[in-house]
Amino acid sequence: MVSKEKIVNNPLSVHVMAKPSGAICNISCEYCFYLEKEKLYPSVSRSKWQMNDEILEKYVKQYIEAQKINVVNFAWQGGEPTLLGVDFYKKAVKLQKKYSNGKTITNAFQTNAILINDEWAEFLKEENFLIGVSIDGPKDLHDKYRVDRGGNPTFERVIEGLNFLKKFNVEFNTLTVLHRFNADYPEKVYKFLSEELDSKFMQFIPIVERESRSDRKDKLKLVDPDHQEADLTEWSIGSEQYGKFLATIFDLWVRKDVGDRFVQIFDTTLASWVGQNPGLCIFSETCGDAMIIEHNGDVYSCDHFVYPDYKLGNVKKKTIRQMTDSPQQRKFGLDKKNTLPKYCQECEFKFACNGGCPKQRFINTPDGEPGLNYLCKGYKIFFGHTSPYMKFMANEIKFGRPPSNIMTRAKKITTNTDIYSGAQRNKPCPCGSEKKYKFCHGR
Q1: Does residue 77 sit in helix, strand or coil?
Q2: How many beta carbons lie within 10 A of that of residue 247, not counting itself?
Q3: CB-based contacts of 141, cutoff 8 Å, min separation 6
């Protein structure tokens, strides 16, 4: 039955991350925000947490049909998606081909890599999956929170799985959760990922979660930003700590790795400096185009808003496109822009930040207005520290030159302001503003 709900601002494409194994995982990371989502489905036994054939086919078919562009990107996550076995994903790929209707299909797969073996790696390579491997740094940092259900370390098993991927030349990137412990070691983390693992693509994900002070009806402890009585968890990263981490690894990257290694937040920031869409929902002006589907077909507004109030429906009763275009979901996405505090609207880095992820907007501005991102101080440290470099790289791109030219200049400077040393006062500013240096960074 076609929904009679009014369609508002419907996007050309939508991203729906699939969690076919739900919240079930083979390890028990202490900081994981998703493990407790198992409580939302109390009647489901642990052996039944698997997307069945009916839901899988509806998801694949509806997701492809929901796209008004010719490239469809599937993303598989969990919990731990490898728990379902290779055959599940062979079935998914077969369905993708059946319903592709001439569109190009790609697959991304996030895993802790522990179950990866020859069979898995061969399949992932054959079907050209892009793999995101969760690893939080070298052994002592990784094993701080990423332990199995018996409390045992997991680092060695992750490395073993990663070696299978390398053996079959499977393309992978690394996803590193930044928490209060490992974020104090930026050089150690970056050098491990780049030099020991030879990671070419890195994501650094700050963990920021609050725990309810009282029992909730949904039985969840980790709360959404509207929950008033909550305390920051002990593993959550500090805001300034986050900014300093990013600034430190940026200094390592900008001197030797530009164009060779890619760090997601550096790429999205540079995109903002050249006037492009950052391509990352947390820095987009609005959101609402990145949802998740649970094992049973339930669709929620966002991976970080899997709460009863943010459930949009189920693919057995509504199509993904109907849920995407629903007033509830469009409002969710527009609220990111419409509830942005004045303090943020007047910020010099609004163009690059746009207030960050709504999940983290739970503190007040200096003027007392609610809705400021907890990571605001950290973002200001990062954006401020990198702005001269970003301006230089943006200027290189503007004139058709590679942004990697920044490395020659960056190797000779000791602080970010030194990038302008040698600039002539009456010549154009090196930042690319088209103003004379004396009226811009030479003031």
Answers
A1: coil
A2: 18
A3: 181, 182, 185, 188, 189
The whole-angstrom separation of Cα 95 and Cα 97 is: 5
pLDDT of 212 strictly over 50: yes
Q: Where are the beta strands (DSSP E) in 13-79?
A: 15-18, 71-76
Question: For residue 285, what are the contacts with CB-CB under 8 A and spacing of at least 6?
Answer: 336, 337, 354
pLDDT of 199: 98
Side chain identity at residue 69, one-letter code:
I
What are the tokens at 390? 């970003």
Tokens found for residue 155: 């680092």
End-to-end CA distance of the chain: 64
Q: How confident is residue 46, by pLDDT bands cut at 50, 70 and 90?
A: confident
pLDDT in tens, 375-388: 999 999 999 999 99
Q: Which of 143, 148, 218, 303 is catalytic?
A: 303
CA atoms within 13 A on the CB side of 86: 14
| Total residues belonging to the chain | 443
Q: 122, 137, 125, 129: which is closest to 175 by C-alpha?
A: 137
Tokens of 335: 């609220």
- What integer is the mean pLDDT of 176-198? 98
- Looking up tokens 């101080």 gives 377
- Written as six digits, the tokens of 336 are 């990111």
Distances (CA, A) of 131 to 32, 214, 398: 19, 38, 32
Q: Report which secondary-structure segment, H or E, holds 190.
A: helix 186-191
Phi-psi region of 422 (alpha: psi -120 to 50; beta: other; left: phi over 0): left
pLDDT for residue 189 is more than 60: yes
Phi-psi category of residue 434: left, alpha or beta, with phi > 0 → left and psi -120 to 50 → alpha = left
How far are the Cα atoms of 207, 409, 413 from residue 428, in angstroms, in the given order?
Answer: 41, 17, 20
Mean pLDDT of the region 354-361: 97
Say yes or no to pLDDT of 412 above 90.
no
Q: Give tens-digit pLDDT for 429-441.
A: 655 555 677 777 6
Nearest alpha carbon to residue 350 among 362, 358, 342:
342
pLDDT tens track for 138-174 = 999 999 999 999 999 999 999 999 999 999 999 999 9
Q: Cα angle vertex 174, ends 384, 284, to 5°?
A: 45
Q: Is 418 a catalytic residue?
A: no
Rg (CA), the chain: 22
For the cut 70, the answer to whether the pLDDT of residue 442 exceeds it is no
Q: Give me the pLDDT at residue 205, please.
A: 97
